[in-house]
Design a protein that fits this description.
single chain; 242 residues; alpha/beta; Rossmann fold; six-stranded mixed beta sheet; four-stranded antiparallel beta sheet; 7 helices; globular; binds adenosine-5'-triphosphate
Length: 242
């Protein structure tokens, strides 16, 4: 007899989406204006586990606002966000921070790297927030993450001594260090020359595809956006799939 709580070998894999956004709106109060502006209006988005989605839109369309909400860094005014089946909107701030730390890695155009630190120290920073790992273990994981992005020979270089593309690879290694099932990337190659940008994007896509991580990419670059499984356009506060 099979107990209902025992998983049967060969059963269908879980189909819980990485992200499920329902009816999300966001308004901002503008100084000197009586009425708030609506930046996001009834947004719906589902990104399957391991899926790659891109979000495009003109400057000011609300891409970063949406990404901040998807990354649980900001709360919507209406609607809900579920991350791997957990309704994050209903959680208190601490619960959201914990879910964020366990499941999401961020790669931004602004690297937010601390220039005085070595690549190894920089990449290990998220493990300090997590707590509970010995220094030796943190170093081993950081070395592993830097090796994955091809920087095994630059472990002890200060970030200020690295090129823009190398710095962005450090940022990717840092985003991967806690093994997130979802990566959020906001114009990750916006500051790089086209050849280096391509190499960094190849790395990001490869990392997502090979490891089955979901990736949500915000970009102005349409040809880059088309490499995703689904392309979504943000315009007038509405998100439409194209
Ligand atoms: N904290 C805030 N307070 C008031 N207005 C805001 C705030 N954050 C964003 N906005 C406004 O919301 C709109 C969308 O901004 P957002 O940064 O999300 O756009 P974006 O699509 O990412 O633009 P870009 O491509 O130029 O980075 C803009 O009009 C911006 O001024």
């Amino acid at each position: 007899m099979t107990r209902p709580d025992v998983k049967v070998a060969g059963a269908a894999p879980p189909t819980t989406p990485a992200v499920e956004v329902t009816g999300v709106s966001k308004r901002f109060k503008i100084r000197g204006k009586p009425d708030p502006i609506t930046v996001l209006d009834d947004i719906r988005l589902t990104v399957p586990s391991g899926g790659i989605a891109s979000i495009v839109g003109l400057s000011g369309a609300g891409k970063s606002t949406l990404l901040n909400i998807l990354g649980l860094l900001d709360q919507p005014d209406d609607g809900s966000i579920s991350v791997f089946g957990t309704n994050a909107t209903a959680l208190p701030e601490r619960g959201r921070a914990s879910l964020r730390g366990k499941t999401i890695g961020f790669v931004f155009q602004q690297l937010n790297l601390l220039s005085g630190r070595t690549a190894l120290q920089q990449v290990a920073v998220p493990l300090l927030y997590e707590g509970g790992r010995a220094l030796r273990e943190r170093r081993r994981l950081a070395e592993e993450a830097l090796t994955r992005v091809g920087l095994q020979d630059r472990l002890h270089s200060k970030v200020s001594e690295l090129s823009g593309g190398e710095q962005q690879r450090v940022a990717i290694a840092r985003a991967l260090i806690r093994d997130p099932r979802l990566i959020l990337a906001d114009e990750p190659t916006g500051a790089l020359d086209p050849v280096t940008a391509d190499q960094v994007m190849d790395l990001l896509f490869r990392t997502a595809r090979e490891d089955g991580r979901a990736l949500i990419l915000v970009t102005h670059d349409l040809s880059l956006a088309r490499r995703a499984d689904t392309v979504h356009t943000l315009d007038g506060g509405r998100l439409t799939a194209s």
